[in-house]
C-alpha cells in the first residue's frame, strides 16, 4: 500500500531532504521550549538533578554471559536501560534549562553508549543467522538491527537533532561520532539485510510489533542524517516495503492480537513512522484516510475498560500505558473522535523513570501537544460493544459512557497468536472498572520465555486461565489448536460470543464438543454468564475442573449454596454462582508473583477451582456473576 503509492519513483516528488524536518523545536528555540509549563519544566529538572553525579554504570561481560549461564536477562538490562533513560532525561532537561548545565553529563552518557562493544543484547543475537548463537562474549562486529540497537540509535539521533548546535560549538567530533555509530551499527546493516525476520521479506515468517518498532528509528536516521539523496531514497523505500508487510499481515479487523500494552509498539510504532513521513514531506505523504490505518488505531478505545485497565490476553499486561500524546495524535490524524477522547482523557505525562525504553521522539512530541490534549477535558468514550471478527475477540459493558456496572471480554482465536498463551475460550470480567476474573499476563521475560520450553511456564498454561482442564490435559500451543464456529451476536440487552473450544485441546483430552457461550445480560438483574455444554468422545466419563483467576480474595458460601463472594473494592461486592450439585469449589493462593505480575495485580492472586464431583461424559454448566447493589 505505502510503496505502491509512494514508491521510489515518487519519493523525490515528496521533497524528503529538501526542506527542514522539524517535528518539534530544537534546544536553541527558547521561545518554543519556553511554552512548556513551569510545572512540567520543574518536574523534569528535578529528575535530571538526581543524575548530576551519575557514574554511568559499567556493562559487565559477566552480566552479558549470564544469559547463557542462567537465562538471566535482567543483570545486563538494568545498567543498559538505565544508561539510556538517564541520558534522555538529561537531554530534555537541557532543552528546558537552556544554559548548558547538563551538557557535560550528556556527553559522558553519549560517549559511554557509543563506546559499548555492542548495542545488541544477548537475547536478541539469535534473530539472524550469521551470529553464533552459543557465543557468550560480545563482539564489536555484531551490528544488527533489532529493538535495543534501534532504540539506542533513536536516542542518539534525536539528541543530535535537539542539541546538535551546542555540540558543534564544543567540537564537530560529537555529531560526527553520532552519525558514524548510527550508520555503522544500524543504517548500513539495515540496507544490507533482507533477512531480518521482522522486516517481512521472508515468505512465511510471522511479523509483529518489531516491524514498526525497528523501522521507526531507521526511518528517522535516513531523514535526519543521510545526506546522499540516493541512499536516503533507497532507505525510505525499503522502510515503506517493510511497513507494507506489517500492514498486510495485521488482522483486517484492526485488532492488535498482541494486546493493548503492545499496541504502542505495534500500532503506535506504525503511527510514528507515518507521522514522520507526513511531517518530513510537508504533508504530501498522507495515508491516514486508509481504512486499515483507521481500524488499527480504533482498537484502543474498543478494548479500554477504565483508567489504565484494558482487555488484555496472553503476554499483555492488564495495565497499559500507551501514552496520551501518541493516542491523541493518532486520533487527530485519523479523524477518530473515540481515539481522540481516549487520548485526551489520559492524565498528564509524568516524569520518566529509569530502566525502561526511553523514546526521546515520543517524549518530546508529547511535551508540545500536551497543552492542546489536556485542554479538551474529555472523558474516555467507554464504548458499549466491540467485535473483532478476524481475531474473535468481543468486549461489552453494561452502560455506554461509564465504567459503572459489569464489563466482559472474551476470545476465541487460536494458540499460535503473537505472544500466545494457551487461552482459547478464556474471558475477563470487571465491575465498576475493577477486576473480578482476569488473565494473569506474564512474568518478566527470560531466556525460557522464547525457547522451546516456553509452555512449561505455569502462567502460559490453560489451567491458569479461565478455562476447563479435562483428564488433566491442557490446551496445546500451535495455530491448529483453535476455536471453531465462533459466532458473535447482539440482541436487545444481550451481547454474546458462542464458540466450540474442543479443538484447542489435543486428542488425549477426549473432548467431542465443548460449546462455550460468554454473555453479558443487561436486562433485569445485569449479569455475566458463561455457559458450557460439553460431550466426551465415545461417552467416556472424564475427571475435570474449571479454573477462574481473580485478584479478589474469594469467600465460599455454605455447603451446597453454590456461591462465592468477591470483594473488589471497599464496600463493593460481586457474587459468583455455580452449580453446587455437580461442582465443588476450592481456593488456591498464587503467591509466586514476580515483579511484572505484582505491577499489575499486587502480591497475591487466587485461583478458584470448580471441580466436578464425579467423572462426567456430558453436561451443561453455568457460572454467573452479578453485583451486590444498594
UniProtKB/TrEMBL annotation:
Q: Which InterPro entries match?
A: Chondroitin_lyas, Hepar_II_III_C
Q: Where is the Heparinase II/III-like C-terminal domain?
A: 408-543
Regions annotated as coiled coil: none
One Pfam short name = Hepar_II_III_C
Annotated compartments: Cell envelope
Can you say what this protein is called?
A: Heparinase II/III family protein
Q: What is its main location?
A: other
Amino acid at each position: 500500500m505505502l510503496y505502491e503509492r509512494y514508491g521510489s519513483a515518487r519519493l523525490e516528488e515528496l521533497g524528503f531532504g529538501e526542506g527542514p524536518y522539524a517535528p518539534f523545536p530544537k534546544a536553541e528555540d527558547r521561545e518554543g521550549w519556553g511554552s512548556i509549563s513551569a510545572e512540567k519544566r520543574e518536574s523534569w529538572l528535578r529528575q535530571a538533578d538526581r543524575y548530576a553525579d551519575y557514574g554511568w554504570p559499567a556493562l559487565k561481560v559477566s552480566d552479558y554471559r549470564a544469559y547463557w549461564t542462567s537465562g538471566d536477562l535482567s543483570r545486563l538490562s538494568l545498567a543498559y536501560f538505565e544508561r539510556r533513560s538517564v541520558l534522555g532525561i538529561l537531554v530534555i532537561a537541557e532543552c528546558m534549562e537552556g544554559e548548558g548545565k547538563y551538557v557535560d553529563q550528556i556527553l559522558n552518557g553519549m560517549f559511554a553508549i557509543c563506546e559499548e562493544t555492542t548495542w545488541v543484547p544477548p537475547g536478541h543475537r539469535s534473530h539472524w543467522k550469521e551470529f553464533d548463537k552459543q557465543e557468550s562474549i560480545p563482539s564489536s562486529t555484531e551490528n544488527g538491527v533489532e529493538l535495543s540497537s534501534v532504540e539506542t540509535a533513536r536516542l542518539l539521533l534525536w539528541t543530535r537533532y535537539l542539541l546538535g548546535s551546542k555540540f558543534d560549538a564544543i567540537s564537530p567530533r560529537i555529531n560526527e561520532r553520532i552519525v558514524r555509530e548510527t550508520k555503522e551499527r544500524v543504517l548500513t546493516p539495515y540496507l544490507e539485510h533482507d533477512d531480518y525476520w521482522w522486516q517481512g521479506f521472508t515468505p512465511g515468517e510471522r511479523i509483529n510489533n518489531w516491524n514498526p518498532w525497528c523501522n521507526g528509528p531507521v526511518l528517522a536516521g535516513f531523514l535526519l542524517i543521510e545526506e546522499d539523496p540516493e541512499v536516503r531514497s533507497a532507505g525510505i523505500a525499503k522502510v515503506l516495503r517493510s511497513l507494507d508487510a506489517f500492514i498486510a499481515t495485521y488482522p483486517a479487523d484492526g485488532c492488535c492480537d498482541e494486546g493493548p500494552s503492545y499496541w504502542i509498539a505495534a500500532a503506535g510504532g506504525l503511527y510514528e513512522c507515518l507521522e514522520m513521513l507526513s511531517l518530513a514531506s510537508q504533508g504530501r505523504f498522507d495515508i491516514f484516510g486508509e481504512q486499515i490505518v483507521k481500524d488499527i488505531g480504533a482498537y484502543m478505545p474498543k478494548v479500554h475498560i477504565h483508567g489504565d485497565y484494558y482487555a488484555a490476553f496472553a503476554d499483555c499486561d492488564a495495565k497499559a500505558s500507551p501514552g496520551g500524546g501518541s493516542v491523541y495524535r493518532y486520533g487527530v490524524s485519523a479523524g477518530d473522535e473515540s481515539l481522540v477522547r481516549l487520548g485526551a482523557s489520559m492524565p498528564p505525562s509524568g516524569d520518566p523513570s529509569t530502566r525502561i525504553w526511553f523514546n526521546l521522539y515520543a517524549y518530546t512530541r508529547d511535551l508540545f501537544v500536551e497543552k492542546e490534549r489536556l485542554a479538551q477535558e474529555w472523558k474516555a468514550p467507554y464504548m458499549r460493544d466491540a467485535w473483532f471478527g478476524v481475531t474473535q475477540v468481543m468486549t461489552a459493558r453494561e452502560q455506554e459512557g461509564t465504567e459503572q456496572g459489569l464489563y466482559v471480554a472474551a476470545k476465541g482465536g487460536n494458540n499460535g497468536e503473537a505472544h500466545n498463551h494457551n487461552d482459547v475460550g478464556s474471558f475477563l470480567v470487571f465491575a465498576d472498572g475493577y477486576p473480578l476474573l482476569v488473565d494473569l499476563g506474564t512474568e518478566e521475560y527470560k531466556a525460557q520465555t522464547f525457547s522451546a520450553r516456553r509452555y512449561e511456564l505455569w502462567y502460559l498454561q490453560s489451567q491458569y486461565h479461565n478455562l476447563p482442564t479435562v483428564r488433566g490435559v491442557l490446551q496445546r500451543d500451535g495455530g491448529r489448536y483453535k476455536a471453531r464456529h465462533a459466532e458473535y451476536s447482539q440482541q436487545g440487552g444481550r451481547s454474546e460470543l458462542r464458540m466450540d473450544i474442543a479443538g484447542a485441546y489435543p486428542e488425549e483430552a477426549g473432548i467431542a464438543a465443548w460449546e462455550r457461550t460468554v454473555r453479558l445480560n443487561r436486562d433485569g438483574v445485569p449479569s455475566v454468564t458463561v455457559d458450557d455444554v460439553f460431550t466426551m468422545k465415545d461417552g467416556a466419563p472424564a475427571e475435570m475442573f474449571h479454573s477462574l483467576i481473580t485478584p479478589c480474595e474469594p469467600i465460599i458460601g455454605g455447603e451446597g449454596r453454590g456461591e462465592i463472594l468477591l470483594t473488589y473494592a471497599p464496600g463493593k461486592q460481586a457474587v459468583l454462582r455455580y452449580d453446587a450439585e455437580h461442582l465443588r469449589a476450592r481456593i488456591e493462593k498464587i503467591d509466586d508473583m514476580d515483579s511484572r505480575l505484582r505491577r499489575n495485580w499486587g502480591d497475591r492472586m487466587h485461583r478458584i477451582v470448580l471441580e466436578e464431583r464425579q467423572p462426567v461424559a456430558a453436561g451443561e454448566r453455568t457460572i454467573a456473576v452479578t453485583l451486590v447493589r444498594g
